[in-house]
Fold:
Amino acid sequence: MTDQRDTMSPPPALRAGVDLGGTKIAAVILDEHHRVLGRARMETPQLGGPRKVLDAVAASVLSALQDAGAASIDLGSIGVGSPGAVDAAQGTISHASNVSGFDKPVAAAAELQTRLGKPVRLGNDVGVAVEAEARLGAGRRLNSFLGVWWGTGVGGGVILDGRRWLGRGHAGEFGHTLVKKNGAQCPCGLKGCLEAYAGRLAMEKRARKLAAQGRKTVLFDLMEKKASDRLSSGIWDKALEKEDRVAQEITARACEALGLAMASVVNLLDLDGVVLGGGLGGRLGPRCLPAIESALQRQLFVPEKPPKLLLSELGDEAGAIGAALVAR
Amino acid sequence: MTDQRDTMSPPPALRAGVDLGGTKIAAVILDEHHRVLGRARMETPQLGGPRKVLDAVAASVLSALQDAGAASIDLGSIGVGSPGAVDAAQGTISHASNVSGFDKPVAAAAELQTRLGKPVRLGNDVGVAVEAEARLGAGRRLNSFLGVWWGTGVGGGVILDGRRWLGRGHAGEFGHTLVKKNGAQCPCGLKGCLEAYAGRLAMEKRARKLAAQGRKTVLFDLMEKKASDRLSSGIWDKALEKEDRVAQEITARACEALGLAMASVVNLLDLDGVVLGGGLGGRLGPRCLPAIESALQRQLFVPEKPPKLLLSELGDEAGAIGAALVAR
Structure:
């Protein structure tokens, strides 16, 4: 027995995690102590369908491995966090309308396994990011918290007793918490959702409306200067730095909606904390935390016991690290 | 050993449960199979402070025991469900402003133990009622559900994997889920809570306002006829039966708010179901379920997977039965 063990090589200890987004693919390599040994970032192919996209995902893993100074033989398994509807058991992704060809079901796990020769597991992008915060980030000292991923939309995840609550598989849609009955139109088709006030898309729509009404703002000048076609989190940050009134108003409205919706959840679940991440959360979080906290505090049923409001600690790597955690 | 066991009498198997309310005290006696063997109901003393109230609680237990054809020696333990802030570990009740003298802390468990000679445990009134539905009522086939107790206020409880989620001890305040930011004034001091649209108190306030504006309604005639000082659930039911327009409008507004707030919770937690109970829930539930369900369905993020919306099966005994379940 002892001899046999000595001659067996240990299983490969490294895990890869990939955060597949509509514009970027981020990959990390984690060792068994959850240290990030290597990373890679690339643009998501906008054309070419699933084949091109999965080729890029595989390339990002190999590039991150190289960055870690490791080889394919050191890699044990791979995790992928994806937008859309992820069926982890089946290894498929669908309804990811911002990734080329992923609106229809794609057998992503099997396809990537063929390309990389290692087992692949899928997870929901925001869900795995929130789990990463729970295990390694701002949530690691909290028994229960709401993860709020503030970006183009508003995603979420609920950690209870240290584990993510999945419900029947669709839990976490914090962006579709009601903020105002029969209120603003949400991109999801419903009315009055948090995302209709705080999502980047909704904020941009409102900025265009106010500009069309003749309000002065630097937002669109900054967009042209960056040769961008959208108001990115960086542009919002810049406009706030320049004390642009329109940007201030819209951001204040978003922060109020975020804080009020957080309070609804805390009133029901009495959570230890709220962790704010995502593209806008990472960029505007430090600046916006007081306004969010003030709205949250205002709407608490038990104001003497407010939850801790914390910023994500893993930043824009939370998704890739979380994906690595679901691997194997 | 065998001899000794044979000569020992078995521990008393019956449990008493008491639902302490602002107007009524209800008690039940349960056997080890959770069958209700006896019951008692009495008015809550409106004056005289904790001593009088606890005397009445003790009397209700003895009366229910008698109804069960049992004696004090058969009783193993007692559970009490109470409004206000219940500290189960300390055995105290406080902030129960609608029970005489219970606004300040009362050592209810110890006091009742002295009166009845049996161990007493306390629980939150709505919380234990929701647990009773989970174990013995409408929720027994659901892995996870939101219990909604629709009455003077709107209480709640969240059952996850069959167990009530307590958070840091204050979970369940579903009545203070936001329905409209900066909306109607809630009795709790906040604005736009569900309870500000759907609580019996809020509904009565709105009825008085509409009547003062000259709207015709039978609500207050019914109240006078019943020599009541408030619009009870029975009066609302009667007015709806008579197709009173004001009652219909206010109830529709309450049902919309209930359904929308339920949808917010289901979007976040993806629960199997929602169970509706409480005074108004029991009385108006059958009539109101379609309107509540329609608002709930309207605001679901994943409309193809609606939760089951069910009426409480234990009715107005849920609280007393739930209290018996926390005994011992």
Q: What stands out?
A: Residues 1-6 of chain A have pLDDT under 50 and may be disordered. DSSP finds eleven helices and twelve strands in chain A. Chain A touches chain B through 41 residues (CB under 8 Å).
